[in-house]
Amino acid sequence: MTLLAAVDVGGTTVKAAVYEPGRWAKRAELRRPTVRPTARGEDPAVAVAEQVGAMVQELAEGLAGELATDGPVAAAGVVVPGVVDEAAGIARFAANLGWRDAPLRELLAERLPMPVAFGHDVTAGGLAEHRFGAARGFADAAFVPVGTGIAAALLLGGRPHRAAGHAGELGHVDVGHGHRCGCGATGCLEAVASAGSIARHYTERSGRAVTGAREVLDADDDVAREIVEEAVTALAAGLRLLVTLVAPEVVVLGGGLFEAGGLLERVDRRLAESLIFQRRPVLRRAELGDEAGCLGAGLLAAELLEPAVAP
Ligand SMILES: [Zn+2]
């Protein structure tokens, strides 16, 4: 049995799982995914590489025990956030992880005893949604997870469009409001429509602390309604730009905000009203949730081994 290890490194947690290519539908049931707080260290890239190496080794040892096989983990896929140059194997920048131009693929290869595929978390999530989830069957698709920030994975003709990690920064297009973004610019989409900014703006304006953006969506007061309205307007404007330039057939919206009913439908209506000649895309909720990044990392690992164990 050939097995693949998949690791999704985030700003707060690292998730690792093992997949069996060809039986993706089983997902990570072979070995329940493990989640750990992201390691910090003087050199953040080295700390994360050490942690990933240890987690993959633990998974492999656990499997040997559980399956009574020394089933080798044939390849590993590791995905990270931020600006990632996949071709060069370099993590250019990630605000939450504190690295700059880190040679992560090399650091990982030194610590993992199998071939390593290295990639970008949102792109990997998009690959997974395209292969197994809400974008299945569409050639041109955009995957837009809305969380702490907002980014887009673009799949054009079924292939990810990467531009050395610089493409897809949908969170930083100017949608014409006066709020300052973490990037330093004013008017960015994610400055009013990310889960983080929705919660922060609510607390600033109402003086009431909330546990997250979902609470603002559910709240029944004027401040909450105003903030959600701003987010809907901004998301529709950001998607209008995406649709005008790239014209995806489907836009898959991810993140907890869209899991509840209502928001996706409002954005869809507002977007449709704003289109003139542009093709209206299908808007869908992401189907893979938190596992999209790991599944995508598994797909990257499988690609390394192709055609031997193509899924
Ligand atoms: Zn910005």
Structure description:
By secondary structure, the chain is of the alpha/beta class. It has two domains: 3-126 and 290-305, ATPase, nucleotide binding domain (Nucleotidyltransferase, domain 5); 137-286, Nucleotidyltransferase, domain 5 (2-Layer Sandwich), CATH 3.30.420.40. The chain contains nine helices and 13 strands. Strand 5 and strand 6 form a beta hairpin. The radius of gyration is 20 Å and the shape is globular. The two termini are 13 Å apart. Bound molecules: zinc ion. Zinc ion (ZN) binds next to loops. The site of zinc ion (ZN) has 5 residues, from loops.
List the keywords:
311 residues, alpha/beta, Nucleotidyltransferase, domain 5, 2 domains, five-stranded mixed sheet, 38% helix
Strand order of the largest sheet: 3-2-1-4-8
Radius of gyration: 20 Å
| DSSP helical segment count | 9
Count of DSSP strands: 13
The level 1 CATH classification of the largest domain is Alpha Beta
Helix share, percent: 25-40%
Structural topology:
Layout: E1 3-9, E2 13-19, E3 34-37, H1 44-67, E4 73-80, E5 83-85, E6 90-94, E7 99-102, H2 104-111, E8 116-120, H3 121-132, E9 141-145, E10 153-156, E11 159-160, H4 190-193, H5 195-206, H6 213-218, H7 222-246, E12 250-254, H8 263-274, E13 282-285, H9 292-305
Parallel strand pairs: 1-4, 4-8, 9-12, 12-13
Antiparallel strand pairs: 1-2, 2-3, 5-6, 6-7, 9-10, 10-11
The site of zinc ion has 5 residues, from loops.
